[in-house]
Amino acid sequence: MNRPRLYLVTPPVFDLEAFAPRLEAALSGGDVACVLIYQPEATAKALQETAAKLVPMIQKAEAAALIYRDTQVTGRTGADGAHIDSSFEDIKLAMESLQPARIVGAGGTKMKHEEMEIAESGVDYLFFGRLDLEEQPGAHAKTLERAEWWAELFSTPCVALGGNDLATLGETADTKADFVALKDAIWQHPEGPAQAVRLANAILDQHPFEEDEE
């Protein structure tokens, strides 16, 4: 039996020295598959400084460290891969630059045929959900519908972006996505990020699914 694993997304803006121990706490709370360092407005220099500090911490916890939209920072800091959601052309360029040694994940899609075309190109995963939208307690209905459709029909792994309330995590897990992405549900949890990861994993354990036969 399988169940979704956690894919953590950092806040878009944070103080590095204050955030690093919070990330370390989250990683100590239980199973985390990967962490996306998501700083869409950061300069390349600032992103490099952030990644240089956080990537080793993430990898020490045996999670994959992913960089948002910057393949050069990915390479320079020894990160495990990059997440690209700007355009199909950018996704293909990232694949040429990073694969097969590193992960290339794709997101930002709007149409099902576009998602199928990107998957056929050889990306490592597809991400369903908008990182730039204000979070709601639960996952967006379109995210749930798209992730469930994808998980049922295709072999390329997918990530479903959940809401900011762990009480709604079960419905995201029930899409049978390979990974569930969480942002403020972890970083803004009243009991802290370590307990949030513990609770999230306990919820995910209650939502196993059988992998479909090929």
From TrEMBL:
The pathway noted for it is: Cofactor biosynthesis; thiamine diphosphate biosynthesis
Keyword vocabulary terms for this entry: Thiamine biosynthesis
Where does the Thiamine phosphate synthase/TenI domain lie? 6-186
Query: Cross-referenced CDD domains, in alphabetical order?
Result: TMP_TenI
What InterPro entries would the database entry show?
A: Aldolase_TIM (IPR013785), ThiamineP_synth_sf (IPR036206), ThiamineP_synth_TenI (IPR022998)
**Which PANTHER family does its entry note?**
THIAMINE-PHOSPHATE PYROPHOSPHORYLASE, THIAMINE-PHOSPHATE SYNTHASE
- Specify the protein name: Thiamine phosphate synthase
